[in-house]
């Protein structure tokens, strides 16, 4: 599975509707245009109607009569409120962040009256297509949970497993990462990793295979795992990399994008619906892959 195949899979759901909060953003509208050209998604764009109408004329060349609907919102807060409420009321099945601060849209998502919380931890799940690497790799959590404890890590894994299954990885192999591959009481990440592995063996973490702690090299490289004498069904074959904290995840995410030139799609999982919460600096291509991932995750 490559990220391009996510777009093909998303075309199976042409009726999927995306609510975009503060859609007055060139890269967002380029992604919308590319999605429509590929044949998936309908879009409700919340924001300044006059600005959006002008941008759509410039960036969206072809769209069916019901493919795009503009709903005027005077402020970012109003746009976030209306977009989240549309998903809450099932008028849309995916929420997408436009040109609005993350804190603003998350405040709406967490609203007790009309928000999208389910009681589960919300976590960021990124799917990477790395050049010269034979399979996709999922990384979690690079953007939401700062220093997750053991319970939060179990829910982060459960969210990532659901995303993996949605893209066709039916029994994902999960590697909780640490600096070393042995338990060291001075390194809390290794203790959590060992506990997660034991929880998986006892059936507390289902539909996946968890083994750790593993360092990055022996999680993704068979040769590295063999060189260190690690006997594990996950070592060298990990589908999901679980980072110990947000700093590690952020550095790994950006290293893959900027050094390895990896393609990426990412969503927030654990809410009532997938949330496309890409950075305003992300390319239209990344936003397109994230849209496709979200629609596939909705229809798992």
From TrEMBL:
<comment type="similarity">
    <text>Belongs to the phosphate acetyltransferase and butyryltransferase family.</text>
</comment>
<protein>
    <submittedName>
        <fullName>Phosphate butyryltransferase</fullName>
        <ecNumber>2.3.1.19</ecNumber>
    </submittedName>
</protein>
<feature type="domain" description="Phosphate acetyl/butaryl transferase">
    <location>
        <begin position="53"/>
        <end position="294"/>
    </location>
</feature>
<keyword id="KW-0012">Acyltransferase</keyword>
<dbReference type="InterPro" id="IPR014079">
    <property type="entry name" value="Phosphate_butyryltransferase"/>
</dbReference>
<dbReference type="InterPro" id="IPR050500">
    <property type="entry name" value="Phos_Acetyltrans/Butyryltrans"/>
</dbReference>
<dbReference type="GO" id="GO:0019605">
    <property type="term" value="P:butyrate metabolic process"/>
</dbReference>
<keyword id="KW-0808">Transferase</keyword>
<dbReference type="InterPro" id="IPR012147">
    <property type="entry name" value="P_Ac_Bu_trans"/>
</dbReference>
<dbReference type="GO" id="GO:0050182">
    <property type="term" value="F:phosphate butyryltransferase activity"/>
</dbReference>
<dbReference type="InterPro" id="IPR002505">
    <property type="entry name" value="PTA_PTB"/>
</dbReference>
<dbReference type="Pfam" id="PF01515">
    <property type="entry name" value="PTA_PTB"/>
</dbReference>
């Amino acid at each position: 599975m490559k990220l391009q195949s996510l777009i093909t899979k998303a075309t199976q759901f042409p009726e999927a509707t995306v609510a975009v909060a503060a859609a007055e953003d060139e890269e967002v509208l380029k992604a919308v245009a590319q999605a429509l050209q590929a044949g998936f998604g309908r879009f409700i764009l919340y924001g300044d109607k006059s600005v959006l109408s002008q941008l759509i004329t410039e960036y969206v060349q072809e769209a069916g009569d019901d493919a795009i609907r503009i709903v005027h919102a005077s402020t970012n807060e109003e746009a976030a409120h209306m977009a989240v409420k549309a998903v809450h009321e099932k008028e849309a099945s995916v929420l997408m962040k436009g040109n609005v601060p993350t804190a603003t849209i998350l405040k709406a998502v967490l609203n007790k009256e009309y928000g999208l919380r389910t009681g589960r931890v919300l976590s960021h799940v990124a799917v990477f297509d790395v050049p010269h690497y034979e399979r996709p790799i999922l990384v979690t959590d690079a953007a939401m949970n700062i220093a997750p404890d053991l319970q939060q890590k179990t829910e982060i894994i459960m969210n990532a497993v659901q995303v993996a299954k949605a893209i066709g990885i039916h029994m994902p192999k999960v590697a909780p990462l640490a600096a070393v591959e042995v338990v060291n009481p001075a390194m809390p990440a290794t203790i959590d990793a060992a506990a997660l592995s034991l929880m998986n063996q006892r059936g507390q973490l289902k539909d996946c295979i968890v083994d750790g702690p593993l360092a990055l090299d022996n999680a993704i490289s068979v040769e590295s795992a063999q060189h260190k004498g690690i006997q594990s069904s996950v070592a060298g074959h990990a589908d999901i990399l679980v980072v110990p904290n947000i700093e590690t995840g952020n550095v790994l995410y950006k290293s893959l994008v900027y050094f390895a030139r990896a393609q990426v799609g990412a969503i927030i999982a654990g809410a009532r619906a997938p949330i496309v919460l890409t950075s305003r600096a992300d390319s239209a291509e990344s936003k397109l892959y994230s849209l496709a991932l979200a629609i596939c995750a909705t229809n798992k």
